[in-house]
Amino acid sequence: MEEAIRLREEILRLQESLLEHRRQLFALQQSCLHEFQETPLARTCVKCLLTESLYY
Ligand SMILES: [Zn+2]
């Protein structure tokens, strides 16, 4: 039981951390001067890892 509570708290903590990191990555990608590296299917920025599909 205590183990379950501990695990649930850890999951909540990680989910909040995940959201925060996603926000930070999004902000970073918004302000990046992209340098794209292309593959046949997508292009990825080597600086911020933003990926855009080349399928339209
Ligand atoms: Zn970028």
Write up what this structure looks like:
- By secondary structure, the protein is of the alpha+beta class.
- The protein has one domain.
- 54% of the residues lie in helices and 18% in strands.
- The protein contains one helix and three strands; from the N terminus they run αβββ.
- The protein has a three-stranded antiparallel beta sheet with strand order 1-2-3, with no helix packed on it.
- A hairpin with a 3-residue loop joins strand 1 (36-38) and strand 2.
- The longest helix has 30 residues, at 2-31.
Order of adjacent strands in the largest pleated sheet: 1-2-3
Structural class per helix/strand content?
alpha+beta
How many strand units? 3
Task: Give the fraction of residues assigned to helices.
Answer: 40-55%
What is the mean pLDDT?
95
Largest sheet: 3 strands, antiparallel
Number of H/I helices? 1
Beta fraction: 15-25%
| SSE succession | HEEE
Rg = 17 Å
Which outline best applies? elongated
Count of individual domains: 1
Low-confidence stretches: none
The molecules bound to the chains, other than polymers, are: zinc ion
Layout of helices and strands:
Elements: H1 2-31, E1 36-38, E2 42-45, E3 51-53
Antiparallel strand pairs: 1-2, 2-3
